Amino acid sequence: MDISVVVPLFNEEESIPELTAWIKKVMEKNNFSYEIMMIDDGSRDSSWEIIEKLQNDNPLIKGIKFRRNYGKSAALFCGFEAAKGDVVITMDADLQDSPDEIPELYRMIKEDGFDLVSGWKKKRFDPVFTKNIPSKLYNWTVRRMTGIKLHDMNCGLKAYRKNVIKSIEVYGEMHRYIPVLAKWAGYKNIGEKVVVHAERKYGVTKFGLERFVRGPLDLMSVTFISRFVKRPMHFFGILGALIFFVGLLAAAYLGVQKIIQLNHGITGHLITDSPYFYIALTSMIIGAQFFMGGFLGELVSRSSSERNKYQIEVKTFE
């Protein structure tokens, strides 16, 4: 099969028929073999009934329905797990992503050799202060932290080589950082394509202000996991040793200072009367705790069933 189109959706009853008809038209025009995977993330409208009706008319439309709303990452995970196409295209169900982009995205994967191609909504039709400006700030931050030079990390319109989506695990709110997960899994040939972004035709956006809190937290999580999940001692051990060493130097300074005072017959105050003594002591305790946290994390990592799970691209034997 050439293409699997994975569409996560939540309360999009008005746009589903138009979207599936549009995708079908593009696929037939380009003679692609395809499937459309619709993942209903616990919709409260008639979205699922519409999907069932469309499937009766077109068996290439397939559906997965969640009992409740789990979020976009969960929908993508299940869609990726079920997808069978050589190239997997993801897009939102609100008609803001154009299926006309599919042929070029497919070509970039198959002919140009990209592992992942992310859409770039260069001209957006979203509210300036609640979406455009936060999006620019977010993308700038992610580029700086991850080294992945994408202008629109969170664009829903993306294309993947099949083995990429079978090698990553999307959970929580990690759909925002799929390129980061792909790079961590060893797929570094990541490209970008300017795509058309349309105004929302039906309904309202399903993303609220909570994404401004969840986004930065998930970025910290994915950055830490991608760098230190198999070697926690490299982070906690080094940080703990550094903090402990600073505290030790401060304590040594206070001790030497006290000895010099005594040698000169100066009694002065007790070391414990100085606030720096408690700062030094606290630093040594915190440093030791960080170090032990890294050591325990290392033990957990070594006993984990995932400790020796690696992505192997080619084998010369079976």
How is this structure best described in words?
The chain is of the alpha/beta class. Helices cover 48% and strands 12% of the residues. The chain contains ten helices and seven strands. Strands 3-2-1-4-6-5-7 form a seven-stranded mixed β-sheet, with helices on both faces. β1, α1 and β2 (34-40) form a beta-alpha-beta unit.
Mean pLDDT: 83
Sequence of strands across the biggest β-sheet:
3-2-1-4-6-5-7
- Count of helical regions: 10
Q: Nearest-angstrom radius of gyration? A: 26 Å
Query: Which spans have pLDDT < 50 for at least 5 consecutive residues?
Result: none
Distance between the termini: 25 Å
- Protein structure class: alpha/beta
How many beta strands in the DSSP annotation? 7
Sheet having the most strands: 7 strands, mixed
Helix content: 40-55%
Element order: H for helix, E for strand:
EHEHEHEHEHEHHEHHH
Determine the strand fraction and express it as a percent band. 5-15%
Gross morphology: elongated
